[in-house]
TrEMBL record:
PANTHER family: HYDROLASE, PUTATIVE (AFU_ORTHOLOGUE AFUA_2G14860)-RELATED (PTHR43798:SF33), MONOACYLGLYCEROL LIPASE (PTHR43798). It comes from the Eukaryota. InterPro entries: AB_hydrolase_1 (IPR000073), AB_hydrolase_fold (IPR029058), AB_hydrolase_sf (IPR050266), Peptidase_S33 (IPR002410). This is AB hydrolase-1 domain-containing protein. The keyword Hydrolase applies. Pfam families: Abhydrolase_1. Keywords: Hydrolase. One of its GO terms (biological process) is proteolysis. Residues 34-288 form the AB hydrolase-1 domain. One of its GO terms (cellular component) is membrane. It comes from Coleophoma cylindrospora. Belongs to the peptidase S33 family.
């Protein structure tokens, strides 16, 4: 029998008037539980459904706050879509939730924001969880593009993939077509997933159910993220400044943010645990859910609780 998780859904107004769609998982009217804020990836595409499915299992111990970032999902499509603005939104939500310190989790693009947040507001963090991310924007973009256009698992429009990974999409339809043609590369190869330990449960895959959510494809958000933000994103030489205990997880068969990027982050942050998921692609919480839960819970018990 699946335990019912008490969820509060809110519309929270930021300091500039932009409204964000927010969920808090776990009943705690007096806010006595520690707070965990989990960030989704793929600006303009992904939504809070991704971190909700990944971290809902913690709601008995933590208040798990997930939200659609501005420019994504059901939140306002109002910029600026910059790391600085997205960081300010996290700060506003932290204060709204009444927490002085919290755990910050970020997957894929959410990991970029988490790293930048840690360099600006490191004193606010009890811990960090990074999933399948990188520390250098230009190299990351070019690696992902190269892996996409050379993959024997895909048949893509190369010019369109150049547009999505460099942030010069024509429109929302161009964004949709660019995503749909590369979906298989986010999952591990079939011969690998067939060998994975069976968990007896079904988890959503990367971007699964996107059309059903009505969130749509917002190319303006994606273009800002990859044309403006990524060329300026390079925290490799500042990783040593991050003092919060950090868990880095990555799928062995992730071709968007390959293992060596996570290894670089783990080598740079002083207090880090790196966990490689041998049967996973870009989304270990979906590919190996039991191991992901065990790994995260072990880290939080040792470093935060």
């Amino acid at each position: 029998m699946t335990e019912t998780i008490v969820t509060t859904t809110s519309t929270v107004t930021m300091d500039d008037g932009v409204c964000l769609h927010v969920k808090v998982l776990g009943d705690d009217a007096k806010a006595t539980k520690p707070l965990l804020i989990a960030l989704h990836g793929a600006p303009g595409l992904s939504t809070l459904l991704d971190p909700e499915s990944s971290f809902a299992f913690l709601s008995g111990t933590f208040r798990v706050l997930v939200f659609d970032a501005r420019g994504s999902g059901a939140s306002d499509l109002t910029g600026p879509y910059t790391h600085e603005r997205w960081i300010n939104d996290i700060e506003h939500l932290r204060k709204w939730a009444g927490a002085e310190k919290f755990v910050l989790a970020g997957g894929s693009y959410g990991g970029f924001i988490a790293l930048d947040y840690a360099l600006v507001h490191g004193d606010r963090l009890l811990g960090i969880i990074l999933r399948d991310t990188w520390a250098h924007g230009v190299v990351g973009m070019m690696t992902a593009l190269a892996n996409v256009v050379t993959s024997d698992r895909l048949k893509v429009d190369v010019a369109r993939q150049v547009r999505v990974w460099s942030g010069i999409l024509y429109d929302d339809k161009d964004f949709e077509e660019s995503v749909l043609e590369i979906l298989p590369i986010y999952d591990p190869p079939e011969e690998v997933s067939n060998k994975a330990p069976m968990s007896g449960e079904t988890q959503p895959k990367v971007f699964e159910g996107l059309a059903e959510t009505g969130s749509g494809y917002h190319s303006a958000t994606q273009n800002a993220a990859f044309c403006e933000n990524m060329p300026r994103f390079d925290v490799r030489h500042r990783l040593k400044e991050i003092k919060a205990p950090t868990l880095v997880v990555v799928g062995r068969h992730d071709y968007i943010t390959p293992v060596h990027f996570s290894q670089e982050i783990a080598d740079g942050i002083p207090n880090t645990r790196l966990e490689i998921f041998e049967y996973s692609g870009h989304n270990p919480p979906a590919d190996e859910p039991e191991k992901f839960r065990d790994t995260v819970w072990s880290f939080l018990k040792a470093e935060v609780l």
